[in-house]
Records
---
Amino acid sequence: MSLSKIALDMAEKVRPILVAVLPQRLLSDIKAKVISKGAKELEKTEIKPFEPDRYPGGINLVGSIKSDTGLGQSMRLVAHIIEHSSWDYTVYEYFVPPGDSMNNTDYDSKISNEFKYNVNLIHVNPSEFPLAFMNVGKEHWDYRYNIGYWLWELEEFPEEWIPAFHLLDEVWTPSEFISNTLRKYTDKPVYTLPYSVTAPTDPAFDRKYFGLPEDKFLFMMMFDSGSGMVRKNPIGAIEAFKKAFGRENKQAGLVIKLNASEQSEKDMEYIRSILDGYDNIYFICTTLNKVEVNSLTACVDVFVSLHRAEGFGLVMAEAMLVGTPVIATNWSANTEFMSEETACMVDYQMKTLEKDIPPFKKGYHWADADTGMAASYMKRLYEDRAFYEDKRKRALEHIRQKLGIQRSVALMEDRLKQILEERK
């Protein structure tokens, strides 16, 4: 075991104490430096070349499939594609701290510590990839075809993560937006395997269940403090809502859903400080299971995402699938399954980051949505029922075709077949 791995393991064991006495930013910086050092060490690692017939044909899926975070849901969506394919697979549960709730049991029957098969599909982002390699062990990389399934949100990519490419034969992503970014930083294959989106709901999880008013037209935005409040931009959604509806309008409301996490209390404190006396803004600060989240999205009237960048935009796709119209920034990966016909697409200006907002760095670029235009869409959806129904129906029809399971399965099987044919 390397010194980097020992240091990280010890840090996680004392994490509750460290969080209480040290700023989150400092903890993140320390962890990033240790992982970066580990990545440089691993650049010297020589992985034994792929031998297709050394192990049975199948997929060892690696990642945190039990996590109730967006990363956990992404992992389960990849498992869902494999489940509907002709490929056998197992799941190696790799925990990426901090993991918050780890209560999902959908794929417990597939979890195993064995690496039975000849393909590794490692659903761990490049920031954590060296640690995952140390955790899993080189012997499970050797002689297999190693694919990373990565998520990222901008057109620039951190230099310190580039060594992670060395540990892979190729990379898969859920969007061409991410794939096009990564292709600038590697000559290894980068392949797009979009999610097949499902959104099961339960009528028991209604407005009453969530403590929301039943007599108001509700907009909702959602973010996870762990994935960055600034990128998800709840402040933009609040400003748009305030421009669309004055304090005197009590028939419209805004729901802000965020996961309970180490950072969420501070985020909520800041958001409350800018509400300017609006009493029709409602907070849900808890970690919900996926059916609860989908049901919450279905029981509001409009979903709003004035994000600055998205690697896919899963919640927007799920909102379209449950029949909730979407207002969204017209930039990044969500534009691959949304258009002006199927959603209310908001103009933006590209902005340069003036300081580091980890993991994003000073000098990187992202979108700043036009809150005035978003406010206009809010008012129109609130006032114009025909416009509302048109967006809802078009979105539902489009998303079922665009992100259906058959397409995702075919793309995955075609690529794996091509890999095996080339190597044999």
---
Amino acid sequence: MGFDCTACHADLVSAELPHATPVAKVDCGTCHESAVAAFDESIHAVARRNGAAHVAATCVDCHSTHDIRSASDPESRTYPLTLPTTCNRCHADEETIAKGHIAIGNVGDLFKDSIHGRAISRSGLLVAANCTSCHGAHDIRKKDDSQSRVFRANIPQVCGTCHEGIHTQFTRGAHGAAWASGQTDAPVCSDCHSAHSIERADVGSWELDTVNECGTCHLDKIKTYRDTFHGQVTSLGFVRVAKCSDCHGAHEVLPKTDERSMIAPGRVLSTCQTCHEGATAGFAEYDPHADKDNRERNPELYYASRFMHWLLIGVFGFFGLHAVLWLPRSAMERRRRHEPPPRPRDENE
């Protein structure tokens, strides 16, 4: 269905041609009432009302003016494969970012190098997440707005629109249960995967970084993990050893008291055997988070560690004292070696 000029420029219905310029501002809400109502509550509209009208996006910035096309048209600015380029006209432009005081900075370059960005630009996947998949289209809101799609509590559900299976696992896990119980500091998808710079989960660098991410919350566990062979090898940059997710799972993380957990007494041996094929029941009794500083949890390790600690101090102290006491004798020996030999006695003397 086509439209003539006056469908948008209603002020020109009775005007003589050629019409005078400039023409009145077009009201998109005449036809797109719901879209304009949503936009009026968005971060772009709020920014314009707060003095950033010279840079904050309006309808024409995303949809253009006379060449407006359907989002399903490959030539459209809002076509899924083109949309990141449209958004990047502002969000990857340093001048616009500075003028608009956009705190998150240049997210365009981060997204371009992410797994979602590469799926769009390199693989041409229409199903890959683009800007509107996470932020919405007309009702884009600040992340601290509870109605925003990227508000912390809403992130798992938004990611779940594409990653439905992962979302199901997350909700069954300890992190999802923590959110369900009202623990707003529990981790969500973006805490582990980031937001705009999401990487492939099977990339070695990401696997190693995940250990650190887990450690930002589980400080006591990362400390004891780093004391183990697994932890020390990952610190050297090797990935072919057990990391947090190898033992605890990734999205359906469960406590060992839950029989579904990978570290539950009935399953821990099979978990160890994924790497150590010949592992026995005795092997699985190994404590991967033994704490040498916790006397109640690991008394044998605690006292062994203290013994070695004081033994080391004693050995260095003894030999240090020995070295100090030997210094005067050593000095005397050096002086003696440098003294001229005694002059032979003259028989006539």
---
Amino acid sequence: MSKLYAGLAAAAVVGMVGGLFAYGQLAKPDDAFAQCRGGVVGGDIGGPFTLQNAAGATVTDKDVITKPSLVYFGYTFCPDVCPLDNARNAEAIDILEERGFDVTPVFITVDPARDTPDVVGDFAANLHPKMIGLTGTEEQIKAASQAYKTYYRKQDGDDPDYYLVDHSTFTYLVLPETGFVDFFKRDETAEQIADRTACFLSQ
């Protein structure tokens, strides 16, 4: 039942955030990536962040986004959505590697109370050897989430250790020199993500 509820909640959040997210501004004629984009991207998305890696060291976006990266915001206690999405992203990374592209999967928690550096490190390592797991203080997570225009909210509950977190489920393609260039929704496959990412990296 909890998995069903989590899935429905996530779907509702995706629908809500998707409607508000990024379809407000037409691509400019001089957009070098115009033919690669899956939709019209509007708004100022992405930017600097300061978080903690699996070793507990403080890192910034400059330390993390050193290669083209697929960035996802979620949490390790997520019963189904986050593991499935990140497994799909990991598959896309492998497809891209087979095509000669070196891309890094990045997982940023929105549940810092439970997702310690060790926890996000184990979660990331279990999904892909190249995946980077990041956590931080509540303030650091909030700032990173706001930079990427993501949504998350802890559900109310009596048990302080067992609770679900509603959150948006976009995957962001971020390039080291360019920053955010596009996003992928839950219904896109690993092959589709790899195809569009390869398009950006071939420009």
---
Amino acid sequence: MTSRNERVVVVGAGVSGLAIARSLAPDHEVVVLDKGGVAADTSSRASGVISLSLEPFPDEWAAFALDEYRDLDGQGIFSFAERETVRLVPAGNGGSYAAQAPDGGEFHSGAELRERYSGAFGDLSAYDGGLVYDGTGYLDALDYAMTLKYLAEREDASVFRDHEVTGLRVTDGTIRGVETEYDTIDADHVVYATGWRTRELLADHVELPIRPLRWNAVVVEPDGSSSENWPMGSESSMKVYWRPTRRGNVLVGGNEHLLDDPDGTPMSVEKSFRDLVRERVLPLLGGVGSGAIRREDCCPTADCASPDGLPIIDAPEEAPDGLAVVAGLHGRGIMLSPVTGRAVRSLVTGEPAPFPTEGFGLDRFEDRSADFEYRSHWD
């Protein structure tokens, strides 16, 4: 068992970095450093949708993450709202799912959906119904991040904002610490959880096949009041999802795409997405058809994609001993954060994880370039 005297520096104070800190803090000296604020970039704008049962992930990941969210509910300022998710089925396809739906879902006709979720749906004439999934829900991403920070600091972790890491200290192929804009910090392990920028930041030590990814979201105020039993939902042909908010609004997200120049791309929701939401998505939802868009969001700096759509959580063989990376979370960083934190703990301590980790390795990619097409989770 690793002693508490071992120091771990986590670079990046987004939700992934904070989840890692919380996982390691009980028996390690943990220092989290971020050149900006705590959860100030992509994490601050995340939709908070937790739909692991619909994602191409092992069942054990979903079970572990859900247990973590349920256990955290009520701690700090965090709450997890469990809601069923309805994935709409286009007309002519319902018969394929009547007997058995994929991934544990259950098919319901349009009439059954209206009865089950009173007032939640509008015009479903183009759909046979929907696949209903449980084990899903939503959270407020910033509340979640601040609760992870609180829990890590309660175990004596130190979290510093406005503290840029400028390089690694490596001797004889082994991590000795980090250089920062202010000073040198010794460490036995360094974990980078810095999104798409990790490729450039660690270019001298390891090549990572990751690219910046952006998504759009809008928050719509309904014409009337929403109900507490409204489900979350998605429509795969449009590649959009929606969820209720605690203020009675509806968040609609989607339009995931790769970026070549995040810093030079306007940080605004694209008009085509806004039009799609108004013209095709809102009519599907009850009492929202002529609702007003009250807020628009996109990830401020960009999220991070991998070639196969799955995360890289690894201590790469070619990297200095003691260096671990978390990258390529593919827009699912909040959703996977409990898994990420526990997987990094396994890398640092050698403890087995309670879920499969074989698919996390960087060595699954022969081509480490950033020249790849986006692999959508919808396909």
